[in-house]
Amino acid sequence: MASIDRSDPVILGHVLAEHRDLFHLLLAVRTSLAAAGPQTSERREDVLAAMHELRDHLRDHFAQEEQGGFLEESVTRIPRLSAAVQSILGQHPELLAELDRVISDLESSPADPGMWARIDRNFASFSAHMTAHERSENAVVQAGYNEDLGLME
Ligand SMILES: [Fe+2]
Ligand SMILES: [Fe+2]
Question: How far apart are the CA of 73 and the centre of ligand 1, in A?
Fold first, then answer.
């Protein structure tokens, strides 16, 4: 069994790299939503492609976290983190559902200015939930691995 104060730079680096990848995919959607110009069907396709890429990545990322790994290991090391980890993992289905609602809204609505404003607003809300979620995970890893990642403000 690993000693309680052993930090694992490989695992920590992996977690942070995964979260950075997700951040860039979120940013890619925000950038394509913010692109100037008329609301053409081409623009809708660009935004949808970025959203689907994010969605695929997110599904894999969540599945990986649920199969064990750094969250489970954090609880093994520090059992009082159990409730936080359960709550974090419990957010996965709702986060995916929230993104799915934005995607299906974009796929099914007419391309008018009202639709774009709504998509933008709802995606911003999803991004905020996602960012808070990842921040909680980083905090658990930081506590579990007794490692100051410099992520807590
Ligand atoms: Fe997660
Ligand atoms: Fe994560």
Answer: 14
